[in-house]
Amino acid sequence: MNDKSLAFIFPGQGSQSVGMLQELALEHPIVPGTFQEASDVLGYDLWRMVADGPSEQLNQTEYTQPAMLVADVAAWRVWCESSPLRPAWMAGHSLGEYAALVCSGALSFTDGVGLVRERAQLMQHAVPSGVGAMAAILGMEDAEVVEICGQISTSDAVVTAANFNSPGQVVVAGHKSAVETCIEKARSAGAKRAVLLPVSVPSHCPLMAKAAEQFLQRLQKITIMAATAQCSVVHNVDVSVQTEADAIRDRLAGQLHGSVRWSETVAVLASRGVTRFVECGPGKVLTGLGKRIAADVPTEPLYSPDSLRKVLEMING
């Protein structure tokens, strides 16, 4: 049964932590079982890495992206064991979009794991270490940040808005020198905070264009079953719902170098009748963002036995 007022949203890179989903795994064997399925694809013990660390390894893009996809899907499988209710809508923040596609039935889990591993590797190798950077700009209008980026950015020193996360929170990405200049100008223009983020890959900016071309070739070999998906997935790059496989491939490739329009995604879902969001996966990042985007629409995270009970209470009224 699909509930048109319910949307499941999936977190991406940045929500990972050593020990994530451990409590949920104690009550739901499907959690470590899901990680074992992924380990068979990846060729290493992903569950042990998530359970024991070290955090330095888990936080490397090459390992973070598969770990977060699998964690999101594991949380979804727990939900499917716990309730017959299914959302009519799904979306995921950046990497989380792959979890949405897997959980909607548009993409197989095995293909999803392989895709995000390759995505991570292409992103990691697209820009030499130390050349790219990302920064969070807080307390400014989206248009102000876009204007500052436009003033600074050149062909040799690119900086663009990468993530529109919520009103007053924009992430920029590009060449490190341009990102640092953007930070200075944002502070001078009145930003509450403007800080470099601890990432090695400048995601969602033109520096990823070549990686996107290579990734699209990989996507052509993947079966996408959009026509039989169980719910609608809203895509980051243009806030659209697509049902054709090639259209979805184009948006997944475009996401690598295009902005994540998360504020619009949540707002559009709320405008289409969504009255409850569930953040399905580790952490509470999207729950926090949701309070600033659509404060009147409750969001509950699902990552532990206690949080699962709260989600069930919200759903069951």
From TrEMBL:
Superkingdom in the source lineage: Bacteria
Gene3D superfamilies in alphabetical order: Malonyl-CoA ACP transacylase, ACP-binding, Malonyl-Coenzyme A Acyl Carrier Protein, domain 2
Its EC number(s): 2.3.1.39
Reactions listed under catalytic activity: holo-[ACP] + malonyl-CoA = malonyl-[ACP] + CoA
UniProt name for this protein: Malonyl CoA-acyl carrier protein transacylase
GO molecular function: [acyl-carrier-protein] S-malonyltransferase activity
Domain Malonyl-CoA:ACP transacylase (MAT): 9-311
GO biological process, one term: fatty acid biosynthetic process
GO terms for cellular component: cytosol
InterPro entries reported for this sequence: Ac_transferase_dom_sf, Acyl_transferase_dom, Acyl_Trfase/lysoPLipase, Mal-CoA-ACP_Trans/PKS_FabD, Malonyl_CoA-ACP_transAc, Malonyl_CoA-ACP_transAc_FabD, Malonyl_transacylase_ACP-bd
Family: Belongs to the fabD family.
Active site: S94, H204
